[in-house]
């Protein structure tokens, strides 16, 4: 009877150790395609840059959108990536679900690895 208790405790500890994750989750902005962060979308964008990038600023100006106060990366010409079947020949990013200019400009974008 006394030998069963240590064996039971050892079995429980071994089970908990096996169930524990091997690594902590990635920090925000470094997620992979499998796991879009809440409130974000994985996209494939033809152009990614900042508000000082001439291509992006001219595109936004053509839509009547000011990017002056937008910080971080901005994506234009984006399509949604799904977990299965999509590839991206341009720049894969994870963006905040904030869109400007009729949804043609995506803000808060962070590059991801497919």
From TrEMBL:
The keyword Membrane does not apply. Its main location: secreted. Coiled coil: none annotated. The keyword Signal applies. One of its GO terms (molecular function) is structural constituent of cell wall. Keywords: Cell wall, Disulfide bond, Secreted, Signal. Pfam families: Hydrophobin. One of its GO terms (cellular component) is fungal-type cell wall. CDD domains: hydrophobin_I. It is found in: Secreted, Cell wall. Residues 1-19 form the signal peptide. It comes from the Eukaryota. Belongs to the fungal hydrophobin family. Self-assembles to form functional amyloid fibrils called rodlets. Self-assembly into fibrillar rodlets occurs spontaneously at hydrophobic:hydrophilic interfaces and the rodlets further associate laterally to form amphipathic monolayers. This is Hydrophobin. It comes from Mycena pura.
């Amino acid at each position: 009877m006394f030998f069963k208790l240590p064996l039971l405790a050892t079995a429980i500890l071994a089970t908990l150790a096996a169930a524990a994750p091997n690594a902590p989750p990635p920090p925000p902005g470094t997620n992979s395609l499998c796991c879009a962060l809440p409130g974000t979308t994985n996209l494939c964008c033809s152009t990614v840059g900042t508000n000082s990038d001439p291509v992006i600023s001219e595109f936004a100006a053509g839509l009547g959108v000011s990017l002056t106060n937008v910080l971080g990366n901005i994506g234009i010409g984006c399509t949604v990536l799904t977990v299965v079947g999509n590839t991206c020949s341009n720049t894969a990013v994870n963006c905040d679900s904030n869109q400007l200019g009729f949804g043609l400009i995506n803000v808060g974008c962070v590059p991801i690895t497919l």
